[in-house]
Amino acid sequence: MATSVTLLQAAETADGLGALGKVEVKKFFGGAGLVLNGVYFAFFMKGTLYLRTDESTRTRFEALALAPFSYATKTGRVTVTAYHEAPADAMEDSQTLLTWARDAYAAAVRSRKAPAIRAVKPKRARRAAS
Q1: So what's the pLDDT on residue 64?
Q2: Fewer Cβ within 10 Å of end Cβ, the chain: N or C?
Q3: How far is CA 83 from CA 46, 62, 104, in A?
């Protein structure tokens, strides 16, 4: 569940992104998502802002050694390369944040237009009736 601190961080950030339009804050798993025109483009999780990336923006994040979002499961760690940490300078300067957020929103919009590629799970063998 999102903490009140996380929701407050997200609300303050959303207010600072007003130049993009009306940015809404919505609960997002254990954090708080930032939504513009119905599109999730960023989220806060445990005090860290993660921005949406795609093939055209991911290299900027990687060049700055900004980690992708990841979380632990019972069987190991899952890495989500579609979201990366926001750079520290973006959290300190509103114009820099606005630039990164604008790019994250554009990446999110592009990803909605791309055809979904789904993994196919192998079918389980049926047990013979006894």
Answers
A1: 96
A2: C
A3: 14, 11, 9
